[in-house]
Structures
1.
Amino acid sequence: MDYTIETQDLTKQYGNLVAVNKLNIKVQHNTIHGFLGPNGAGKSTTIKILIGLLKATSGSATVLGKKVQLDDADSRLRIGYMPELPRFPKHLKGAELLDIYGRMYGMNPVELKEQISKLIELVGLKGRENDLIGKYSKGMQQRIGIAQALLTNPELVILDEPSMGLDPVGMVEVRELIKAISKDGMTVLVSSHLLFEVEQICSHVTIINRGQALVSDTLENVSHKISGPVSIQVEIVNLNQKVISSLKELPFVKEITQKNATLNINLNTREEVREKISQTITSSGGIIVSMSMKGHGLEDIFLELIKSQGAKK
Ligand SMILES: Nc1ncnc2c1ncn2[C@@H]1O[C@H](COP(=O)(O)OP(=O)(O)OP(=O)(O)O)[C@@H](O)[C@H]1O
Ligand SMILES: [Mg+2]
């Protein structure tokens, strides 16, 4: 199977610092692929290599069927890229910026004009395209950055932390925009350290830490693969021994610990069992005041993976 992006033992050293360490990732065609990792994990470095801005120390990367090389003009037209925290000249108007980029890419002026108005509409800047970028909010700046990445109708779009610095409303807008781009048939690689973000839009994820891929798979498989403990915390009024012993009889309960009025129930399943737990507590005379669960989101998986990598060292 051909992939939109495929790396083989991709490695980048800055002096003694190994920023990307034998990284192997595969991004399938027409997917939204989340590239996750904490600060300093090596996301931006990897991305810069993929688009030909940085040279790898060793290993290789193939993007859109071509071995990546530095400053490959043809590939630059086929790959849209938005750098992290894009800072565009404040004295330019939004539409002007896109026009300058389009001309740099050698686009035909008539097509460029049409493309600019289509993109301005797509990223929700209609009516503001002739305002100075210096007057744009952060969200608007990110959106003009995304429009810039889409100018040449690329087959692959790489967005480096497009949600950085945005408020929750801005984040939702960017997420919707990424989904819309993907519907048009583009492959999207989007980096983030905000896991809940990626969880909502990506079909595939790669999680990296210290330059190494910890996992790279479909979102569903990543969630299933990690069999870390799921636990439920329940605060109970009228907590008695009967509550605890009947909970212990449930087949999916592994261990129960008690702290004052709160039980921590470790499970051996990732199935949804909260209803059964709550019924058991209630029928034994307990009254549930609150219930919460740990270990189900990508956030927990991410923390587990990072912790286990640390432990191996
Ligand atoms: N130009 C550079 N020179 C030296 N070291 C660098 C350079 N760029 C990045 N690094 C280092 O390489 C490592 C990876 O950095 P990188 O920017 O790729 O991480 P990141 O995952 O994008 O992090 P963030 O989430 O903070 O953007 C870090 O330790 C960083 O300090
Ligand atoms: Mg970065």
2.
Amino acid sequence: MECKNRADVVIIGAGIVGASTAYNLAKLGVKDVVILDRGTLCGGSTGSCGAGIRAQWGSEMNCRLAIAAIDIFEQLDDELGLPVGLNQGGYLLVAYSEEEFETLKTAMALQNKLGIKSKVVSLEEAREICPALDASDAVGFTFHARDGHADPFLTTFAYVEAAKRLGVSFYRKTECIGIKVEGDRVRGVSTTKGEIDADIVINCSGAYSHVVAKMAGVDIPNWGERHEIMITEPVAPGVCPPMLMSFSGNYYIQQRPHGSIICGMSPDGHEQSFDTSSSWRFAAEMSKKLVRLLPSVKGVRVVRLWAGLYDMTPDGSPIIGETDVKNFYHSTGYSGHGFMLGPVTGRILAQSITGAKPDIDFSTLDYRRFEQGELIVEHSIT
Ligand SMILES: Cc1cc2nc3c(=O)[nH]c(=O)nc-3n(C[C@H](O)[C@H](O)[C@H](O)COP(=O)(O)OP(=O)(O)OC[C@H]3O[C@@H](n4cnc5c(N)ncnc54)[C@H](O)[C@@H]3O)c2cc1C
């Protein structure tokens, strides 16, 4: 497709964040939005993710964003006119020490204060929520019933289709190779398909966003981190309806609606990397955890392994807002939870850009917080 050479807004990156931002800008009346990707829709982390959605966070900012995102997800099929595959089986968080349980309960108190109805559940209740669970070594559990997961492909596709209906142009196989800056403001982008002049440019390029930011002379301290994940053949429904997750146990496990179990864990050492290869070591370790937690699935076959990139920041919270280059914005650094936050951050960034009051004040997510030592530390990450 021939690219236009002028737009009001160019968005770099067609993952969930770029797609939601494009849709929300168009919905708020911005006429000429272009979203471009060097690959295609969901070709980055969004297409590799576990797609969990939870409001059980440890920082006030993430709690506020996540519960607003759940409100959006719950009516997203109607809003976008296509199904997004939302499934609300809850998140069951598992603590393996008194200290960890206390941390979960402190986070729960914050969540409850912000209107999130998470609660402590007993081992017996945990087994009712997750019938195949063997967690006799656990010390405690918290649960939030409105948590769950959606389909990352369906969700992003639905956003882009709705955006296109509102006039947004989507260019795939179009790599941003330069950002045009004149004086103190952005003027557009150079791409492998030509130049596009634009008043506003938004960097939604995920784990590569620090590379894209640098094209405008802006430094952001985020990095890619490889995370592996796998999926099994389908097993009987109802084995693990919630997302089962533990920070110290280092796992997340959930059953998809068609019966397959999808599960992942964090890598040793948390190295900075753009590597997305899979390893036998992960497959072996993850399989052991899976069978220990859900003994009835012993013998199930793993049908696919893959890896994707977390777009990490030093405090585990996203970077959203305008940069020192006027009209050049970031919406990046989602640190492993951008799928669930994309719907709300796309909305509030679009509100801010169009001069409306954002539903949630996100000014503290400015990238200058790292220099100023005003971090928004989020520990509740697997
Ligand atoms: C294994 C795994 C499990 C995860 N589980 C969850 C989960 O359960 N819940 C959750 O909320 N999140 C999860 N995440 C995190 C989530 O995937 C990301 O936070 C989210 O997808 C980020 O979306 P994005 O749109 O910012 O980035 P991406 O989806 O990576 O999109 C960025 C796009 O930018 C494009 N791009 C890059 N450079 C350029 C360029 N120069 N020019 C043009 N295009 C460019 C890329 O091709 C890519 O398509 C997980 C991630 C992984 C890897």
